[in-house]
Amino acid sequence: MKIKPNLDLNNMDFDILSPVILPIIVIILLFIIFALVDLYRNKSRRKNVLVWTIVIILVIPLGPILYFIIGRKDSDKR
């Protein structure tokens, strides 16, 4: 006899999950904001500002990470 896990979201108690999920959401949002602020403060030295903005916002949570690893190196050597 197999027991099926109950994955019905209507019966899920979000009060139990909120102490875990909310800090993760806040950290991700802060990371996105920090990446966007860094991008636009240095936009005169960065290439592809619009592309990086779209990646940071739409590819959550990898977008900001990719920006800090790859995007900061993608600058003019002035």
Any overview of this molecule?
It is found in: Cell membrane. Residues 31-72 form the Cardiolipin synthase N-terminal domain. It comes from Caldifermentibacillus hisashii. It is a multi-pass membrane protein. InterPro entries: CLS_N. The chain has 78 residues and is an all-alpha fold. The protein has a domain at 46-78. Helix content is 62%, strand content 0%. It contains three helices and no strands. Helix 1 (14-41) packs parallel to helix 3 (62-71). It is elongated and about 60 Å long. The N and C termini lie far apart (69 Å). The model has no long low-confidence stretch (mean pLDDT 84).
Class from secondary-structure proportions: mainly alpha
Q: Cα-atom Rg, whole angstroms?
A: 19 Å
% residues in beta strands: under 5%
What helical percentage do the residues reach? 55-70%
Largest sheet: none
SSE pattern, N- to C-terminal: HHH
Number of helices: 3
The count of β-strands is 0
Judging from the principal axes of the Cα atoms, what is the shape?
elongated
Please state the average pLDDT score.
Answer: 84
Low-confidence stretches: none
- Distance from N terminus to C terminus (CA atoms, Å) equals 69 Å
InterPro entries: CLS_N (IPR027379)
Keywords: Cell membrane, Membrane, Transmembrane, Transmembrane helix
Transmembrane segments: 16-37, 49-70
Membrane topology: Multi-pass membrane protein
